[in-house]
Every structure is written in C-alpha cells, then in structure tokens.
Write the structure tokens for this entry.
Amino acid sequence: MRVKISKASLQSGFLVDVEEMSGEHVWSCYQCGNCSAGCPLAFAMELLPNQIIRLLHLGQEEEVFRANTIWLCTSCLTCKTRCPRGVDLSRINESIRHLALRRGKAPDRFGPDQIEPGVAASAPPQGLASAFRKFGG
Amino acid sequence: MEYLYYPGCTLVDTARNFDRCGRAAARALDVELVEMPDWTCCGTTFPLTNRKIVGLVAPVRTLVNARGEGYEELLTLCSFCYNVLKRANYAVRNRGDERMRINAYLEDEFVRAGQEYDEYEGEVEVVHLLEVLRDTVGFESVTAQVTRPLTNLKVAPYYGCLLLRPQSEIGLDDADEPTVLEDLLGALGCDVIDFPHRVECCGSYLGLSSPDIALQNSYEIVHTASRLGADVLAVVCPLCAYNLDLRQEEMHQRFSGFRQVPVMYFTELLALALEVEEEVYSWERHAVDPLPVLQTVGGI
Amino acid sequence: MAELNPPPWEPRIVAFVCKWCTYAGADLAGTVRLRYPANVRIVKLPCSGRIDCFFIVKALEQGADAVLVSGCHPGDCHYSDGNYHARRRFRLFRRLLEFLGVDLRRVQFACVSAAEGMKWADLVSDLADEVRQLGPYREYHQMCAGDGTGDERDREATHA
Amino acid sequence: MARIGLFVCRCGRNIAGTVDVAEVAGILAEHPGVVHAEEYTYMCSDPGQLKVAQTIADQHLTGVVVAACSPQLHERTFRIACEKGGLNPYMCEMANIREHCSWVHPEEPATTEKAIELTRVAVEKVKHSRPLTPIRIPVNRRVLVIGAGIAGIQVALDAARGGYDVVLVEREAYVGGHMAQLSATFPEMERSRFLLRPKLAQLLSHDNVWLLTNSEVVELTGFVGNFKATIKTRPSTDAEAGLDLADEVFPRGVERQRQESTVEVEVGAVVPAIGYDVYPLESIPEYGSGSIPNVLTSLQFEQLLRTSEGGELRRPSDGAVPREVVFIQCVRSRDREHGMPYCSRICCMYTAKQAMLYKQRVPDGQAYVFYIDIRAQGKDDEEFIRRAAEQYGVLYLRGRVSRIFPQDGKVVVWGADTLSGMNVEIPADAVVLALAMTPAHGALDVARLLGVGADDHGFLTEAHPKLRPVETSTAGIFLAGACQAPRDIGSCVAHASGAASKVLELFSARHLEREPEIAHIDEGICAGCFDCREVCPSRAIEVKEIRDRRGELLDTVATVNDGLCQGCGLCVATCRSGAADLEGYTDSQLFSQIEALSSRWTSTTSAEKPGGGHGG
C-alpha cells in the first residue's frame, strides 16, 4: 500500500527518541548499504539493517517494530566498524528494543522458561546471561 | 610477573578447561595469575543505550575492587569479560556524565556497606592474556620455551567479534586485519591457516535464543575451516566454543558433506606446546574430540 | 602436392569517401573494434563533390566488382553544399550507367556521418554479401570489348 | 624516377596483431619507385620520426609513405618529420592500415592483402604528388562571440583584455543569460547577481567590446582568419524595457534600437557561447504538462527564491507560503525512452541549493528530493549535499516520481523510496521539477550557420573530447560553455577562458598558414564557361581578363582566389574541359590510386611488371 508522508509523520518523535537513547546521528546515514552487506544475521532479517535506519528517517515506527531485525542483532559491531558515516547500529537497535519492550511491541520475551533442560546443562552461563539481558530488557 | 586475574562466570563453569590451561600455561611462562578475591559478574554485555547506567554497575564495581587489590592491571581470558570491562573503563575515562553518575551510584552502595569510596577514574588497565604474551612476554621467548612444537598441526585462528570491536575502545588489534592469534599459534609451531571467517560472528547468544538461525552462522565458520583443511579451530571465547563445537552434531545432521573440526581454546594449545602436565585438560568437555588429530598430527 | 583449392572468390569493392564524414566514420568503426569483411578499399577525397564520374568508371575498368560512393548527410557537409552537387551529379550519372548497361547494383551511393561507425561496418558487410551473390563483374569488360553477350542487353531492353 | 621510402608501422600489436607487417614491407619493397622499405614498432615515436628524417637524407628520397594509423592522427606528425629531413611535407602520404584494416579484420591473409593494397595506393599517390608550400593569409584580429551569458561574457572579457576587438552578439534584450535569472550559486551560496556584476561592469565599459543585444548572426562566410558575419538587430520592444530584471543586466548607454538593422563584420575567429535551455514542461504529461498549479520549473522556483530574498517565499498561484515542497530530479534527464539519455550534471547541486534556500525562507517547511543517484563530484559538492540532508533536514527519497496530480488544494506526488522498499505519497504544497538541460533553442541552426557539427541532441561537437575540448573541426571556430555539453557556472567560465586562449593563440601568430591543398585553374585550357563559379561554396572563383599588349580583351577565364578556396574540389569535378585541378587530390593522383587497386596487381606476382601500368 502507499505510505502517506508529511511533515507531521516525519517529526513523530520516534526518531528523536532513538537518537536521544542511542546517542547516534541517524540523519548522517546516507543509505550506502554497507551495514546490510556485512551483517552476519542479515540473511534471517525481515528488514535489512539499512532499511531500519530508512524507516526511522520516514518515521515508520510500526514497520520497525513489526520486523524481527532488531531481535537478531548480536551487537557484533561489524556494521559500526565499516560504516563510512560512523553510525553505530548496535546502539540504535538496542534503543529500539528498549522502546519496543516499553511500548509492549516486543515479541514474547526470551527468559529462563524457554531453555530446554538439555541445553541449560551445556550452555555457558555467559550465553544465558547475555541472552536474558539482551532480550529480557 | 604477577597479574590480578578475573576468570568470569563461564571459566569457573562450563569452560573450566579454558581457565585451567590458561593459568598453567601462564605459570609455565612465569606469569602468575592471581585470582581476584570475591569477584562478581562482569555484566556480560556492555550497555549500548545512554540512559541505562545500571548496566555499568557490574563492570565498574569489578574495576573498583581490582583497584582495591593494589594491582595496576586486571587480566581476563574470556572476550566477553574483556570487552565489557574494557568498554566500561573507556566510558569512565572518556564520558564525564557517565563517570559522574556511575561513581555516585557506587559510592552510595559502598558507603551503605560501610566501606569508604573514592571516585574511580579508570586507573586500572584491563588486559587480555594475548596482549601480555605479545607485548610483555614476547612471542620469541614463548617459542624459546615451547618444548613440543605443534608442527604441521593445521590451525584456523578464530577471534569472534567482541575481542576486537569496537576498535576505538578496545584496541587489542586491528578489527579487520588482526594478527595476534596467528602470531601466537605460529610461535607454537602450528601451521596457521589464512582463515577468512576469523572475525565473522558465531551467532553469539542467538545460539541460545534463536538456535536454528544461529546454526547457520556457526556452520558457515566451521564448514569454511574444514574446507580449508583445518585440523583444529582455535577460539578465545566460551560462547564461540559452544556455538562452534557443541552444535557440530546438529550441523552434521542438517548439512550434507560436512566434516567436523575439533574446537580448542588457545590456552589449551599453549599448554600442550609447553607440555604442561596432564590434569588441566578435560577433553570430555569437547563435543568433537580433539585427541585423535592431536595424537596423529600434533605429536601429542 | 595437389594444388591447394584456391581461396573462395571475394568481391573487390572500391569506396570513394569524403574525409570529413565517412572516412572519420570508418575510423570510428576501427576505434571501437567493429568487425566487417575486408573487401573494401577506401580512396580518400576532400568532399563527395570532388568525386568525378570517371573515377567510378575507371574503378570498374580496373576490375572492381562494385563501387561505393559515400559522403556526408545533407546539411552536414563541411563545405555546406558540396554533397548536394554530388547527389545531383550522381543521379544523372546513374541513368547514364543504366543506359550503358552497367548493373546498377554494383554502384551504390550512401551517407555515413563521422559518428556512424556501426552504419559503415553494416554498409560494407551488406554490400560485400550482395556482390558476393552477384559474382565477379566480367560483363563490364565484355561491354568494353563490344562482344557483350545477349542476355545482359536483352534484359535491359525489356526493362527500359 | 621516384625514390620513395616506405615505413610500415607495427603499432605494438595494434597493426602487427592481424597484419603481416613484414610481408607488407617485403612486397612493397619490390614495387617500382620504392627504394627503401622497413617496418618499425612505433613510427609515431621520436625514434620513428627520426628514422624518417634520417632515411630521407641518406637515400635522397623524393617521397615518403607511412603505412600506419589514420592520417587524422599523425599525418601532421610525419609531414613535420619529412620537413626536418629536407623533404617537402606534401610529398608524404599515409596509408591507413590500422583503423581501416588491422582493427576491423581478423588475422587472415585477406587482411594483409588489403594492407598491401592500401599501401600500394599511397605509394602510387605520392608518385604523382607535387611539393606545395602553405598559403599565408592575413588574420583579422577581431573575434565574434555569439551569446552573452556567463560563458560569452568570459570569452569577450579575456579577448578584450588580450587587446583584441570583440563583437558580442546577444539574442535577448539583456545580458547575463541564465546566470542573471538565478538567486544564488552552489556550493558557495553567493548571490548570482553579485557574482555577475563586476564582470558585467568591466564588459560594458571595455572599449574593445562592441555589444549588440536583440541581435542574431544570420550568415557567416569565409574561413579561419577571414570570416565575414552578417548580424541582424531587431527593434527592442517596449515590453522588454519593462522586464523585471534589474537594470544592471541592461546595458546602460545603449540606446534602444528603434528599427531593424543589419551590419557586416569581418572577424578572424568565432566563438558560439549560446548556452542552454530547459526541457519544456509542456511536454511532460505525467507531471501535468504545466496545467497543474504550483508545479514549477527549476528556473521558475529560482526566480521565486531571487525575488523573496530576506522575505517570505510565496507561491505564485495563491500567494500562500508552501510548507511541503517536493523537488523531483532527473525530469527527462537520463531518460533514453524520450531520447534524452544523458545526465544534465548540475541539477543535483542546484536542487540541494534551492532546498536549503527554501528552508532559510520557510524554517518550519519540509523539503523532499526524489532522486536516482546524487551526482556531486565537484569541489565541496558532496559536503554541500550532506549539509542539505543533515542540517536543513531535507529528506532525500531514492526513487523516481511516477505521477503528480492536483487533489483538494494539494499536489499529490506518487513516488517510491526504493531504499525502504515502500511506495510513498506526499500531498505537497509545491513541486519543483529539475528539468533536463537541453541545447539552446536554435542551436542546430547556429551549428549549420557556422558549419560545425552537433550531436543528435543539438550540443555542438568539439574537435576531440579529451585532446581538443574547446575547438571544433572547423579551424577558427571555438566552443564556450554549456552549448558544448551541460556544465555548471564554474566550469563554463573555465571552458570559456579555454576558448578565449585559443582565440588569442590564433591572433598572436604573425600570419596564418593554410593548407595548400586548394584548387587552381589552367588558364590555357579554361574556356571561360564559369560552371565552376556556380558550384563553388566559398565564392573563390573570380573572373580574370587576358589582354594583349594594347589592352585588347583577348579572353576571360576563371581563376581561383587562394585566400578563399577551401579545397572542396567541386569545381574540378564540374569542369568539363579538365582545366581545374585540386592540389593534394589531383586527377592524376586519384587515377593512379585507382589503378593501384587494379585486379591486375593482385593476380600477378609482385615481381612481374604490370603491362601498360602508369609507371613512375
């Protein structure tokens, strides 16, 4: 369908919140696609990393929350290392995750109850702790 | 030489062999790792949003306690701990507002526990064993002390991501063109493979929260190493070890033509090369048993 | 050793071209490495207006199987109207050739600009194919020697 | 007997790759008249040229043939080399065995055979060549500049400052061209009129410059150094006097022309600087063909910006302040389907400028730019675009706009944002179209008038895009500014100064030398029918009276004015008595070339002398 864009939709505050929480300048991104190209999890993402930034530009909150992209980011910083405009997507994705959790837009939270017993025994505590922190909010 | 050593939760649990080989090998190179008394969690993931100051409490408290032990440096082995502690230190040293807020937070905690507290400004230097071997011990002297060179053991060096990134805050080595692991393995006599996936993400904690997606990442890495003829994949982080080693059985089922490759911590290889005595290795922790290839090729 | 069978017959085509347009067009075909058959030999002239009808006759007399005359498109001539004069001259000359019984398919006129390298290459290969079907132009010599066989003449008579 | 030296060039692998160069030299070495034949890797190299001069001296050569690339490239080079060796340069011919042979035919015997024949043709031609000396002609040290936009102004200023007279002809009533209609320039953001004012002041006060507004060149004859131009000036209508353009672009002191007048000027060089035009909005149906209110061309928006400096920007339709303005790039540019495949080069930059100027006028307004690729390769251009996006909040949307239509007071824009993969709709208050840059209307007529080439869009054709960008294939005519190709103001000025330097170079020569390949008429044979005069395009045929000692008129014959003859050869082909001939392309040279192609040569071995051939 056709997305209506206007000054109002652009200044919906969503982008401002994300910029304030992440400390990143979302507008300095000029959509070169380097982050999407290098992202190890892009193959499984419904929206590419650069498209998340693009939707921020266009104030399309719902589209951003609907996609699984921000929940597959492992903060491996490949994108930050290679971004020609110095944009750190890991910080932007984490900010959006926090906003999603606060606004009840997050999918089912990942918690201890979702770990099968077999996995729990062999899983490194570091893995569990980081998963809970990243997706528990 | 003595270093205050921070093992971290996993190195006293599923990755105990990573820890024991590290201590023993360091000792063999007369580097004494003195475990930090009553250490607490390092925070595992560095907080990436500005306002979540509580994410800094765990790492900065550890740094404050390390300062309390009177050591200038705090040594780590696991890349998660190294990353969080190093970035927290960087934040305190470089971001005034975060330094002010985290110190206020900890001061309140320490004072309430009856201890005095003076502001932490990043006095402790967070180091990794690889750095110490390279810059302080020196790879030449490591080679000199190697009694059992692992000649013609083909090893693919794997760094993962948090050991090197973000380069501006970590600075252990170049984020895209690291050499420290290659140089160490070379010093041990290994036949080091030029491994293109050495800084690709192994899937990290997605190995637990979205296992079937992360399997693609870990498979990509192990399969490439095996295609390049690697006898062993050397890693620096227990979560990488989990994703790359413990899930090879699933890879075997899901992907045809997949040859399994044993995954070892760099401290295990170091210990073997220095002929550290037996009971530090717990081969049973490996899903893919490295012994066969070590005996035939590595001359162990 | 058995005589190697002689290479298949290839038509000899002489091309009178103007140096400002068609010659430069042929240069361009070379610069962009187009491929076309090697039947054509170019004689450079300042303008198609300089091409004297006797040159065409002389070329046929010297054994050419076809003659191509090519200059600038109308309006492009470096001397503003050289090619107009040429066109009028050749229209009259063609009727004379026809009257004399020369096979008009063997004398062709074209316009190729300095930017039309592709057109030059196509023009030459098409002409070479066409003349290859027609075969060697022996009739011209027979006409000159006055013992032209009937068929050429009769066809002309019925045709005129 | 001719003593011809033949040099066959390998040109690295360019010729040697498909032509057996050794065989060409070998066969031709036996050709009657050839006393020296050798091959060499790069004849155009210094050692190659030295070899020619050396061999001429050593072997007392009377003619030289170089079988190599196209004469368009190196005929000059080898003729100079011959001159250095003491041989008249016109006794040197080239055989084009690269562009016309090795580059276009495969490595087969037929290719080498063709190379041999082309070389034989050149050898036979040289046998019939005659030593010629260049013709010296006077140079008229005055330049005609057509178009008084920024490019024309720059050429005029440079030439005038160089001490030469300038005739500056401008079609409109005002000078300054499109630059005078702009608000500001990119990337400096300086006011366009301020930049123009000093140049105009110098121009209008310089006594070497004769400015003719409301005027057009209607005819041009002659050739380099000796052009004659007819300029028609139309009466300036009162409406033009009222044009809203500030009077600084109106030449003061030039009295309004009441009636039409024509004047002829003799000039030595001509510089068309006729600038550009904008693709007509009327022929863009998908954007309303000009019928939708509040859809403006870039120039219209430029005027809006210029007249609203410091104040409110109000749209012309209803005077409202537009809050949402959509800029659309590549309107008919990069549009092969509409015969406009090229990029107009400056629109990305001026649109960013217009968007920023708009935001300065309407701070709470929102500007959108629909684009395919942002092309900002000039100095500081990339940073300029980033400033528009980051500081001024201009939203760049990557995608073309398929349609715009009016709907309840707004102009609805249907576009795409391919980066996010979304179709977008923007109800805008104003839409600005970055229309394609086309050649100025009438450019093709100017090209025909001057006898210079134009590409199929109408941009005037330069002699060589890399080596001779400001010259044309016609000597004495140089190009300046956007008439050659779309370019921005800075590049127009540089390009114009380049053209001016060519004019100064031409005028600085003491005299001008012209190729001596021109016609001459044998008075003994000429019957005085003057058919030649009918066809001569340069009006170079004149009547010559032959009188006896007592002054009795014996005969009138035709003669060639070697100052005017361009060497087209029309008179030679027209002359029934064979009295006329053309140096460099004489009948004997051409007939010898045709005979060199005779099938008798190929059917016989080279050693056997052809029967009845026109020997040397």
